[in-house]
Amino acid sequence: MALQLVNGIAYGNLLFLIAAGFTLIFGILRVINMAHGSLYLLGAHTAISTATATHSVWAGILAGALAAATLAAVIERTLLYRIQGNYLAQVIVTIGVLMIVGDLCQVYWGGTPRIYALPDALRASVPMGDLRYPVDRLILVVIGPAIAVALWFLIERTATGATVRAAVDDEEIAQAIGISVPRLRVMVFALGGLLAGLAGALASTFIGAKAGIDLDIILLALVIVVIGGPGSLVGSYIAALTVGLIDSIGKSFWPEASMFLLFAPMLAVLIVRPHGLFGKPPGPAAAARQFKPIEILSPDWIWSLSDALRRGIARFSWPAATVVALLAVIAIPVFGSGFLVTVVVLMLIWSMFAIGLNVMLGYGGMPSLGHALFFGAGAYAMAWSGFAGLCGYIGLVAAVACACCAALFLAAVALRARDAQLLLVTLAVAQIVWGLVFKWRSVTGGDDGLIHPQAFPLLWNGLSPSTSLYIHVAVAFAIALLAYAWFARSNFRLLLTGVRANEPRLLALGYHVDLLRFKAILLSSVFSGFAGGFYAIYSGFAAPELFGVHTSARVLLMVVIGMAGTFFGPIIGAVSVIGMEEVFSGWTERSNTLLGALYILVALFGFGGIRVVRRRVAARRPASLAPEILPEILP
Amino acid sequence: MNLKHLKMVAFAAGMALAFPAAGQAPIKIGVLHPFTGPLALIGTESTDGFVLYFEQIGNKVAGRPIAILKEDDAANPSQGLERTRRLVEREQIHLLTGITSSAVAYALRTYVDQRQVPLVIMGSAGANDLTDKQASPYIFRTSFSNRQLGAPIGQYACSKLGLKKIVVMASDFVTGYEQSAAFGEHYGKAGCTVVKSIMVPLGTSDFTPFLSQVASLGADGVWAMFFAADAIAFVKQYDALGLKAKLPLIGPSGLIDPALLNAMGASAVGAMAPIYYTTSLDFPENKAFVQSFKVRYGREPGATAASGYIAAMAIARAIEAINGKVEDKPALLAALRKVQFKTPIGLFEFDAKQNVVLDFYLGKVTPGDGGYTLQVVEPLEKAVDQYGVAR
Known about the structure:
The complex is a heterodimer.
Chain A: H1 2-29, H2 36-54, H3 57-79, H4 87-109, E1 125-128, E2 131-134, H5 135-138, H6 140-157, H7 159-169, H8 171-176, H9 181-202, H10 213-228, H11 233-253, H12 258-272, E3 294-298, H13 300-335, H14 338-363, H15 372-387, H16 392-414, H17 419-439, H18 441-444, E4 450-451, H19 465-488, H20 491-501, H21 503-508, H22 513-539, E5 541-542, H23 549-561, H24 569-587, H25 591-605, E6 610-614, H26 626-629
Parallel strand pairs in A: 3-6
Antiparallel strand pairs in A: 1-2, 4-5
Helix pairs in contact in A: 1-6, 1-9, 1-10, 1-11, 2-3, 2-4, 2-9, 2-10, 3-9, 4-25, 6-7, 10-11, 10-12, 10-17, 11-12, 12-17, 14-19, 14-22, 14-23, 14-24, 15-16, 15-22, 16-22, 20-22, 23-24
Chain B: H1 3-18, E1 27-33, H2 40-56, E2 60-61, E3 64-72, H3 77-90, E4 95-98, H4 102-115, E5 119-121, E6 139-141, H5 146-150, H6 153-159, E7 165-171, H7 174-189, E8 193-200, H8 208-211, E9 221-225, H9 228-240, H10 243-246, E10 249-250, H11 258-264, E11 272-275, H12 284-297, H13 303-321, H14 329-338, E12 341-343, E13 346-348, E14 358-368, E15 371-384
Parallel strand pairs in B: 1-3, 1-4, 4-5, 5-6, 7-8, 7-9, 9-10
Antiparallel strand pairs in B: 2-3, 11-14, 12-13, 14-15
Helix pairs in contact in B: 2-13, 3-4, 6-7, 9-11, 13-14
């Protein structure tokens, strides 16, 4: 028992190091740093390489921490600073960095997991019960509190800490009195990176550096930050120790529940106290920011061309789109190859999924990093309906119903959250369900997924199953589009726009804003669950990663690429992303890097849209009229 | 078309130009393996072995050039299915190989069967049902089935090693369940008891909480089934906690695959497993294989690489037997079923349900010059079929 306790405390301190960086970055800069795990990974790899090359453990730890800090500073200064205040873009950028760094680390250091082997002189262990506990882990019990105290001292008692707190409280005034906010932001981000890299370096003797750990780390940080309260160091420390102890003791006495033990406290906190044990409740909602579009200066003739195009689209978009769509729908199965049909089916399914997110994010202004929750719910419901012997159409109803239940669950927890907090909460909820599905093997098949017999009936004999599915999906997509159009022309959509643009005003007008948001989440889940049901039939099975971060990030990218808040946006986004992925994977094995770069580019430049403007008339030199007009005033 | 494919086809095109009489359409073989993620180690090893054989025979079989197309499934069933669709429908491959994850294999099973794509599993997708209850005439396996891997040491551990009570630890997914079940069954039949069975989530980095109770269970040893990254972390922590000194560690061959031994270091010394391949096996084909592998890749091959190499040999034999006419699927399948030839692991053949028949030896990790190797202690069982039964 002593070993379990000590291990729990040591592990808890390691978790604190990881979470502290994350919570500092979130609390001070309001950035959800999805690349935090990448900083950990880089720190671990660098530490191992340096320590092996120089035979010095201290050099390794220093190198690992500094490498991560440098990368963090670079990320902040070059990428994030340009999109300050746009938390959604920042999340997408950091997801892109996560993908690129993960891929490049694999290229440079290979896929073999690396654990640093301490030289024999340092490989001591302390007897504890029947076993021995290694000193390199025991030392965390001392390092953790030391760093916690140092951080507290830095933030609360030093001048630097005071300037950081000032910049957080009121950025404009802070800048006005001469505090350099850009430098501050870089410093804080670098500090967060330093902590992550340090954690990676310290853990390189037992956890080491391996592919996939960047995602594990970000999930751990998420659990602790949600429990402890985003932005609170004290909360992070207590939450980290608690989670470490629960993890260590729970796993040794109840190994089957190990994954769930991590998420249950997070769920409990979300339900009882959504802003964490030590976090502050969110303040009143502010009016939404407007994003500046990118303006391309062009000569007159290009401008008139693009203007004519724009007006043409505005007037003829509906009839033109219908004609094109009808032609495409008929032409594809007849003239296209089997593979093209498959790709188009996938595009249609993801379009429906993206439409769902667009309702919530684009029209409702509620960013969600956990939309895969509805997709997965729909897919699994369809799979289970197959096992129950129901026909495919009833399975669809079940899929939508299951997604609506998930929406009820999400709304119960996330309705009051805004902006960055909402992103965090939706991610947390999706992860909880992912963990549940992953672990509950008897019902969900766990990690192996569910291979289900569900399928739509063949429409007429002689039709190949893939063409039959194509027809089903095309008809479903048409129905979904009609529902979507009905929504777009409704009063509800106008009200949602109000909620997004200026919530306080709508509240003042007497509208029940929370109810509006709830309805938006529900409607959104209907579309996404519908898509999930079809996906289950398309792929023939349902697996836990349908609930995972990558699925949520992908659909988020689609909506953002296509411009959130426009009607055809999600469809264009889905088609573009799937098309690009097909093309990328054909070019190179490094498609993850290319996709990550795409995420970053879209986040940096895609939010305001692109607009073509007339070249401005060159400013003339200001005429020096003043002395003649006002001779008696000027000296 | 990825870059590797382009190079292969360019090479083939060049050959075709140089020898116009031999110019024919290339035979396309798809390799679906994880090349990213935690199982990337296994995917890369397996592909290295596979590609090596074809390079040795000049990338040509029966006069037709061989084009190898690699796709990454990241051990993820959805991605695996998408990439397989791409390989079959867009690239029009004639044959699919690879598959490291049993979950991916199960996900592909229906598709491969419906589309009539010959699938030769050469990676560690050992799921029992693939060549048993869910067998298909299109699915072959040259690596192993989970029962095959788990069973051979069961009786040996009980009778010869004297481990009367054992703790079973395995990764919590289908392979872990199947291999530990096979071991438990044979161990129990020999008269000994499994004291406790601990399932650890796949991808665990910190085994301390799971290991901390093992010492107090009153067992004589531990049988552990872990893969790749998990195996490395497990073995190191097993030693660091002082368990290695108290309880002998045994397991299936995946635990001490040679590709992992250097990362494990001294912690692995003394661990034992039933293995079907090691570099010191005394066959002439093995000596040649080890030599060429070392020259080509600068490291020694492990069982995974050997399985890949053997799969390539089997495929090449089958294609030669039908004179390169891979489009004739029934003929290709029949030829594959009948292959029987000498490989680095001895005589190779499939059993009635198209799973390989293997000979097992007891392997032990020992320090060697420049690293750690698997030494053969003694032969265990010959001609073990997929049910773990010696024929």
